[in-house]
Amino acid sequence: MTQEPTSLRSIWARTPRTRRPKSRRHQLPISSDAMEEAHGHRPSSTAGRPFLSGLCAAALRRKPLGAHGSAAAAATGEGLVRQLGVLELVLLGIGASIGAGIFVVTGTVARDAGPGVTISFVLAGAACVLNALCYAELASRFPAVVGGAYLYTYAAFNEITAFLVFTQLMVDYHIGAASIARSLASYFIQFLELIPFLKGQIPSWIGHGEEFFGGVISINILAPILLIILTAILCRGVKESSAVNTFMTTLKIIIVIVVVFAGVFEVDVSNWSPFMPNGFKSVVTGATVVFFAYVGFDAVANSAEEAKRPQRDLPIGILGSLLACVLLYVAVCLVITGMVPYTLLGEDAPLAEAFAAKGLKFITVLISIGAVAGLTTTLLVGLYVQSRLYLGLGRDGLLPSVFAKVHPTRHTPLQSQIWVGCVAAVMAGLFNVSMLSHILSVGTLTGYSVVSACVVTLRWNDKGTSRRSLGSMSIWQEGVLCLVIVALCGFIVGICYRFNYAIAFMVVAFVIAVAASFALQFRQVYVDPPGFSCPGVPLLPIISVFFNMVLFAQLHEEAWYRFVILSLIALGVYAGYGQYNAVPSSSENSTIGYHGIPTEAP
Length: 602
Fold this sequence. Notes:
Radius of gyration: 24 Å
Distance between the termini: 13 Å
Main location: membrane
Family: Belongs to the amino acid-polyamine-organocation (APC) superfamily. Cationic amino acid transporter (CAT) (TC 2.A.3.3) family.
Membrane topology: Multi-pass membrane protein
InterPro entries: AA/rel_permease1 (IPR002293), CAT_C (IPR029485)
Shape: globular
CATH class of the domain at 85-432: Mainly Alpha
Largest sheet: 2 strands, antiparallel
Protein name: Cationic amino acid transporter C-terminal domain-containing protein
Helix content: 55-70%
């Protein structure tokens, strides 16, 4: 068992009796009752205080990772089990990514970006590499507890921010699962129609979708059936679901490589001209659309409680899967846009249609098999991640306790898994994918930005600095303010670029962001974490936050409305339920206990 170094204890596990009164990081303007709540001494009821003050005190709580969560469950034999090795983790990340980007989004984005869709995938991949380095550090630092971005935010910032990140991420996962299920159903029907006597005989409402009310409602019967089957596999156990993912991911990687080599001989370089027919702006906008195709690496972070050697294997799984995905995406985009003019690419099955246009029927059959395998693993991993996030919030009391239950023999969060399967099935069976795609990527960009900021804040060493704070603001609060300024400036730069505002506004916003970055660099003292260390802190995470917010500004307006409306709804849910039921810690002397982790090899 590996024990976390005691240097992290000062971040989460200080009690009021041992905390030094001069620590700047904790000079927050909250009451002593709130500080008690932040360390697990929360009163059983907040009825004795005004609603707003109680809400603020609860919202500012942070999570000290103790022995009550995964450790207590593991001790009773009812927790998750560690069965995933490094290969399974890498394939888990690839399985979550390869499928949606290649077989679904490519054709849609190429209609606007042209062959420049390749650059869209490169830009999104570059942003994700920055984010993946941040995820890798935090996954290595906190390898014992499920939760991913939600967990990191809860530990680094506060309870309300963590809950908001969860809600934004979860809507992205639900929408993504529904859209991928419909695409999987469409590919499955297309595969069946390769049989001569079935061609044209299958009604559209079975797999392709039949629209009503102007396309808002689109009935699809096969998509919910596929979701039910995958949910049943996940409910049987992580060993069984991992075996399915490993087999299908390996199959689709082989198929993608074969397709790329076959397509190279059919490329007409004239199809790449013009490379960006609608300008670079459409390429940047396309990058925000394909951004969710890389979300597989954060699925690896959510498997922390089921990895055999998490402190070593999680960073390898995160970075290895992402780099493999970037290479495969770029290769496929170049091939399909070179084979067929981008204006002729289909939206539902662009890869198969590109080879069909060249008369390569046998490759079309192979692509259909790869598409079915690819979308299956993407959907399988997406459902897996959702259930683990619900499990984390159920354990912390921010959601009903039914989500915290783990089956005693299957060792899976059965209720959470069934819930996410049902939600995805309803959405996939009733709603139009094109309508849902306009509001994707909001949660992903939000989560990635906050995780990058978490790396910076958790590296701060308040006791190591002798610098004075600004007025009544602590050094910790000053650093958080600088991070917010960087994020806002990134958003402003993105807005100015999108709407062609005067370049002077972009320059001013960029200069302010640089000034805030200098303050973060020279006003704070940083310490190296145990395990994997993200290079270039704080510069690299700052660039990550800035770039994520530039991409955020390129989203459709409906996505912005969704962000605001969903945040308000989440605040209402937290105010009415979460603040009264959350349990950030369970004991007076709770520490960061990495229970159940096997000893790492030197």
